[in-house]
Amino acid sequence: MNGLESKARITAIGTYAPDKKLTNQDMEKIVETNDEWIVQRTGIHERRIASEEEFTSDLCIKAVENLMTTYHKSVEDVDLIIVSTTTPDYPFPSVACQIQERFNIINAAAFDLNATCAGFTYALHAANGLITSGLHRKVLVLAGETLSKVTDYEDRTTCVLFGDGAGAALVEYDEKNPSFIKSVFGTKGNGGKHLYRSGLSTKMEDVSLHGKGNIVQNGREVYKWATRTVPEGIERLFDGIEMQVTDIDWFVPHSANLRMIESICEKSLIPIEKTLNSVEYIGNTSSATIPLALQLGIEKGKLTNGQYVLLYGFGGGLTHMGMLIKWDVNPNSYSRS
Asked: Is 284 a residue of the active site?
C-alpha cells in the first residue's frame, strides 16, 4: 500500500445484472446502426437493461444478496457502507442509506461516492485506507448503475455502449493476509467537458453543455486520454516494487470498450488473453464493470485464489485509479456468518 502496509482483505463479492437484454439487433431498430459496426468499434454484442421499476438501489440490493448467499456472509455488523454510482435513485437520500435500511445495518456510516467509471477502485481504495488506519473494520463496497435511464437513444455514438448492473464487495480487517499491494491515481479536471451528464449548471469552463440530463461524450478525446493515461499509470504502479507487469495473472480494466482495452494492453505489454471484461454481453456499466468482470472470471474458472490481479478504473472527471491486489476470496475457508 502507498505509505502504509495494508491491513484489509476483500473477503466476498456479489453481482447482479437485470434480466432484460438489449441486443445489437434491437439497437438497429432504435437508431441508425448495425451489428457489424457496433462489434467492430466496441466489441459489444448486447447489454442488460433495468426495467422501468428497477433503480440503482434495487440492483445494489440484489448484488448484496448474491454476495451473502454465495459466501455465507452477514452484513449486519458492517460499520461503513460506500456506494459508487452516477445514477442514484434520488439526489438524496443516498443509495448507501437505502442499503443500510434494507439490510438493517444498525451501526454503520453510509455515503455515496462519484468517481464515475473509476468508482469501484476509488471505493476499494477508501475502504482499504479506513480499515488500515483503524477507523473501520468491515466495509461494504458497492458499485451500481442504471445508465439506460440517462442514455440518449438518439445519439448513435453513445447509446450502443451503456448497460445496467451492480457489484458488491466486502472488505474486512485482516493484518495477516491483506489484499491490497499498491495503488496509483490521477485526475485531469480540464477534460471533464469531454464526458459529462448535464445538471444544475449549463456551462463548464465557458463551454455550453448539452444533453438535458443524459450522458454526453466526446469519444475520440476520451479514447486518447484513456489509452495514454492508463498505460502510464500501470508503469507507475510497478515502479519501486519487486513485482513486474508480467507477474500479474489478470488485468481487469474498466470495461468501457473492447477496442480501448486492446489498445491499453498493447501499450502496456499485457496479453489480451490475461484480461477479464464484462462489456461484450452486459455493456459499459460504468463503475460496475470491474466487479461484474471479476464475477465472470470466477464463474468461468479463470480467477482463483492466490492470483495477482491488476484493477484499473478510468472515466469521467477525467479521473483514474489502478490497484494491484492479491485475490483470496474463498467462500469455504472464510465464512464468518
From this structure: yes
